[in-house]
Amino acid sequence: MATDFGLSEGQFARLQPLLPTATRGGPRVADRRVISGIVHVLQSGCRWRAAPPVYGPPKTLYNRFVRWARKGVWERVFMALAAAHLRR
Questions:
Q1: DSSP assignment of 2-14
Q2: Which single residue of 26, 32, 50, 79 could bond 46 by disulfide (Cβ 3.0 to 4.6 Å)?
Protein backbone atom coordinates (compact mmCIF):
# COMPACT_ATOMS: atom_id res chain seq x y z
CA MET A 1 0.00 0.00 0.00
CA ALA A 2 1.53 3.30 -1.07
CA THR A 3 -0.31 5.66 1.28
CA ASP A 4 1.68 8.81 1.91
CA PHE A 5 1.35 9.90 5.52
CA GLY A 6 3.40 13.05 5.05
CA LEU A 7 6.74 11.53 6.05
CA SER A 8 8.89 10.05 3.33
CA GLU A 9 10.54 6.66 3.88
CA GLY A 10 13.86 8.44 4.37
CA GLN A 11 12.46 10.89 6.90
CA PHE A 12 10.81 8.14 8.89
CA ALA A 13 13.97 6.02 8.73
CA ARG A 14 15.81 8.88 10.49
CA LEU A 15 13.12 9.12 13.18
CA GLN A 16 12.52 5.45 13.82
CA PRO A 17 15.65 4.72 15.92
CA LEU A 18 14.70 7.64 18.20
CA LEU A 19 11.25 6.29 19.02
CA PRO A 20 10.36 4.15 22.03
CA THR A 21 10.09 0.44 21.31
CA ALA A 22 8.74 -0.89 24.61
CA THR A 23 4.96 -1.02 24.57
CA ARG A 24 2.34 -2.39 26.89
CA GLY A 25 -0.91 -3.97 25.82
CA GLY A 26 -1.73 -4.76 22.22
CA PRO A 27 0.14 -3.69 19.12
CA ARG A 28 0.18 0.06 18.68
CA VAL A 29 -0.97 2.01 15.65
CA ALA A 30 1.88 2.49 13.15
CA ASP A 31 4.28 5.20 14.29
CA ARG A 32 4.62 6.77 10.84
CA ARG A 33 0.86 7.16 10.57
CA VAL A 34 0.47 8.62 14.07
CA ILE A 35 3.43 11.00 13.78
CA SER A 36 2.03 12.28 10.51
CA GLY A 37 -1.32 12.85 12.24
CA ILE A 38 0.34 14.71 15.08
CA VAL A 39 2.23 16.89 12.61
CA HIS A 40 -1.03 17.56 10.74
CA VAL A 41 -2.77 18.70 13.92
CA LEU A 42 0.13 20.91 14.99
CA GLN A 43 0.56 22.47 11.54
CA SER A 44 -3.13 23.05 10.86
CA GLY A 45 -4.06 24.11 14.37
CA CYS A 46 -7.13 21.90 14.28
CA ARG A 47 -8.47 20.08 17.31
CA TRP A 48 -7.31 16.51 17.85
CA ARG A 49 -10.81 15.22 17.17
CA ALA A 50 -10.83 17.02 13.79
CA ALA A 51 -7.79 15.15 12.47
CA PRO A 52 -8.57 13.19 9.29
CA PRO A 53 -9.40 9.52 9.98
CA VAL A 54 -6.51 8.35 7.78
CA TYR A 55 -4.15 9.14 10.67
CA GLY A 56 -5.96 6.91 13.12
CA PRO A 57 -8.17 7.61 16.12
CA PRO A 58 -7.83 11.17 17.48
CA LYS A 59 -7.46 9.83 21.01
CA THR A 60 -4.47 7.77 19.85
CA LEU A 61 -2.85 10.85 18.29
CA TYR A 62 -3.37 12.89 21.44
CA ASN A 63 -2.27 10.15 23.83
CA ARG A 64 0.89 9.37 21.87
CA PHE A 65 1.77 13.08 21.65
CA VAL A 66 1.29 13.64 25.40
CA ARG A 67 2.96 10.41 26.56
CA TRP A 68 5.98 10.90 24.34
CA ALA A 69 6.23 14.53 25.51
CA ARG A 70 6.32 13.36 29.14
CA LYS A 71 9.03 10.82 28.28
CA GLY A 72 11.14 13.42 26.47
CA VAL A 73 10.82 11.65 23.11
CA TRP A 74 9.99 14.80 21.16
CA GLU A 75 12.90 16.70 22.72
CA ARG A 76 15.33 13.90 21.80
CA VAL A 77 13.95 13.79 18.25
CA PHE A 78 14.27 17.55 17.78
CA MET A 79 17.78 17.63 19.28
CA ALA A 80 18.94 14.76 17.04
CA LEU A 81 17.46 16.34 13.91
CA ALA A 82 18.97 19.73 14.76
CA ALA A 83 22.38 18.17 15.38
CA ALA A 84 22.19 16.29 12.08
CA HIS A 85 21.29 19.52 10.29
CA LEU A 86 24.25 21.35 11.82
CA ARG A 87 26.66 18.60 10.75
CA ARG A 88 25.75 19.18 7.12
A1: ----SS-HHHHHH
A2: 50
